[in-house]
Amino acid sequence: MNLRNGTTDSDNMTPQSQRVLECQNVSRDFKVGKKLFNKALDLKAVQNVSMNVNRGEVLAVVGESGCGKTTLTKMMLGLLPVTSGEILFEEEPISGIDIRSIAKKVQPVFQDPYSSLNPRKTLEAIISLPMKVHGIGTAEERRGRVLEIMRLVELPPRFLHSYPNQLSGGQRQRVAIARALIINPSILICDEPTSALDVSVQAHILNLLIDLRQELNLTYVLVSHDLAVVELLADKVAVMYLGRLIEYGPGQQIFNSPRHPYTKLLLESVLTPEPGKGLPEIALGKEFPNPLNPPSGCAFHPRCTEATEQCKITRPVLTVENGQSVECHLFSD
Ligand SMILES: Nc1ncnc2c1ncn2[C@@H]1O[C@H](COP(=O)(O)OP(=O)(O)OP(=O)(O)O)[C@@H](O)[C@H]1O
Ligand SMILES: [Mg+2]
User: Which tens digits make up the pLDDT trace of 246-303?
Assistant: First the structure.
């Protein structure tokens, strides 16, 4: 196995697609709430979202709690079916790929390293599990690879036979990252990988993700509340609001010249004195709207200081300029 370019020897025979993951008009509804005349209500958790990640890129997905980030990443992992639209992995619809094959190539790192690691297994068993599941290597080869990957995520080899409860939160998240990397996946889907950790530890894990990216030329989808992290890591940024993609484009452009009034407010939170404290509720004013009864027109209009009558009535369409898309009447023709 080749750690540097993230391929197995047999993979070297086939050319690798540049486009690793793509969402095409992806939507996901949930049936929820009290049944009204025997009809459950539709919660539109993700609506018509299109985005893509090329090899070696980091795509960050940002937005307030409840805007649909986790729902989107679960669909990317093949753990949740789409209601409509298509997710392509290396240009093939994932709906046609069996879940085992997806799991070999698309690996998750979840938010909470306490609940995502089996407390009854040693680190060796936890980290080597994906190799075992996919029938890769002998027991001896697996142990060698576990030690190699532990070195990479800076976990001392003496932890090989330790259990998760003997580790700190940051060390546990290193274990989760090691487990995700052990079979050289094409892409890591990290959903808030640092937000369950102490602020002092968050920077270590973040630095690890940055170093690993350089060392292994990794491709990530990164969901994060921490916009300072996003600015550091992301090549592309997707801003979501109430299930919709409201701004999307190159990270530098979004950070230097955000267009959507919501993105502008979000970015102001980078400058708040307490990093890791979430998004600026005061700046955003009114509460997050009820996703079961979203506002008419542009869903952001009740909180938007620039909203006009038109914003209350019609939903804006996504317009693209210089590779930066925005769904806002201020920018529609
Ligand atoms: N299994 C489910 N059944 C019903 N509704 C759901 C389900 N999962 C998510 N939702 C709803 O879908 C919307 C999007 O949720 P999601 O967890 O994707 O948001 P999120 O952006 O990840 O939020 P957070 O930042 O808090 O993690 C929310 O309104 C949530 O309540
Ligand atoms: Mg979430």
Answer: 999 999 999 999 999 999 988 886 554 454 455 555 455 556 788 888 999 999 999 9
Nearest residue by C-alpha to atom 26 in ligand 1:
65
Q: How far is it, in rounded angstroms, from Cα 189 to Cα 84?
A: 21
How many angstroms separate the alpha carbon of residue 291 from the centre of ligand 2? 15
- Domains present along the chain, CATH in parentheses: 17-331 (3.40.50.300)
Over residues 295-317, the pLDDT tens digits come to: 999 999 999 999 999 999 999 99
Mutate to test the pocket of ligand 1, among 28, 29, 31, 43 (most ligand atoms within 8 A of CB): 43
CB 127 within 8 A of CB 178: yes
The label of the residue with tokens 């390293």 reads: 113
Residue with the nearest Cα to atom 11 of ligand 1? 45
Structure tokens at 300: 């952001």
Would you say the C-alpha torsion 136, 147, 124, 112 has a positive or negative sign?
Answer: negative
Query: Which tens digits make up the pLDDT trace of 94-112?
Result: 999 999 999 999 999 988 8
Please tell me the pTM assigned to this model. 0.89
Give the number of C-alpha atoms closer than 13 A to the C-alpha of residue 307, restricted to the C-beta side: 18
- What single letter denotes the amino acid at residue 162? S
